[in-house]
């Protein structure tokens, strides 16, 4: 059996969620506000701590400054320096003022008097930092950085000042001041729960600290000290990287002594307080959650019982029992039942449940009246359905006869439409064949025109070739004439070479005779003999060169004759080619004329096919109109036949429905009286 679903779980869950969310918000707000308050308290403690360190240092500085000024006003420092008197003065001052320790006075010649008895015999005061600092800052008080006193092992700071006597000699008065007062003040401080405050020198050495274990430690490499040292302001706070707000560090810098007061708290400073808040919040939340669950259970139970009242009433309506919701059953019950009864009491001016009850009771009254009316009308419906059944049977028979007649007419009309459609299809086939033939004719006409255009282009091209060929023949003829003229010139060059050859031969004979005459002249003809020898050499060279020229001219003449012959042959061949080109032009023109005649005949054939298509289209249009009319008549007849059959089917269905209605009317008459009951209070 399926488990019944209930909205009560959702209502209870919603109530719990609505109540839990404020609790969570309240707990979160309390946690955050408490955390912020604790962080603020810690910040105030740290700020007060560094302020106290600064105040302690300031008081220490003022006391030291007052003591130093009071000592230097003594008569021992007014005239010439008297070391014995000065020794007595600084001893008395150290005794009277608890701040002054290890007082010493030294002059520039390393003479000194001191209260300390532990100084070595080779002690040179002028090499000490306190002396050099005072000399460097003459007219001012010099404050040294903190250092460890060798006698006490504690951190101290020296205070010194340079003075001159009546003779102009320079001396320096110095003494140490201890940080005990600062350390004692730090020990009394309470910085949160586990916080610490300390005084640190400029070099990172812890001089005084609430946590005594840190005194003397070097913290110069820590991120906290470096951030404080790099800070531009004299006081403020810094937060190291990756640290929480509770770990914010407060500081104050002292310019005179180059020290800084630092106060800080660890990460777990407020962890106990926050843990306590969380535990308390959890306990309170659990208690409130228990109360909320109890309240949600009670409210859900009441709401569920109220809903069950309406569910029970609707179940009775579903079963055919129309009864109003009454509160009489809740009068002598528990307080919860009485509350439920009051909740579902019918009242149009009440709350939503009371209004729902009132409208439900009103619906029962209206529905009861309607059921009674339906029971009374059921009999009338049964009688009328019997009469309507008889009429529908008669109508169905008449409709059947009409449908058979119309079906016969539709068959004849359909046969005529099919024959007309076949004629249309055959004519469409013929039209397609004519169209194909016409397309072929158009294609042939187009190709013929393209062929004619190509032939005309060929004729123009051949004419251009003929004209170019004539120009080339003219140029070739001119070249032949030029070569013939060149050949004649070459012959003339041969004649000139022959003349030069004769001159060379005569010159050689003259040189030979000159050589003979020079030899017969003896010493007097030696110079002439040399000239004659040179002339003979030139003559031989001219003869040799002339012979080479003759050979070269013979070669040129032979080649020139060959070129003339070849050019003449080419010219004769060109004349033959010209004749062939003329014949080609004549043939192309004849082909063009015959192509034009073919194009004209094809155009006539195209026009004739267009007329055939026009007539065919007209016939096809008439047949299609006839076919359309026949099909329309057939469709109309078939539609009428279908409508008549549909009417027949409708009438048969209508008759069936009337029969069903008749049965339903009888059944309704019985059921209304049997199943529906009107229950009065």
From TrEMBL:
The chain crosses the membrane at residues 12-32, 282-303. GO terms for cellular component: plasma membrane. It is a multi-pass membrane protein. The keyword Membrane applies. SUPFAM superfamilies: Methyl-accepting chemotaxis protein (MCP) signaling domain, Sensory domain-like. Residues 535-562 form a coiled coil. Residues 391-648 form the Methyl-accepting transducer domain. GO terms for biological process: chemotaxis; signal transduction. It is found in: Cell membrane. The keyword Coiled coil applies. Keywords: Cell membrane, Chemotaxis, Coiled coil, Membrane, Transducer, Transmembrane, Transmembrane helix. This is Methyl-accepting chemotaxis protein.
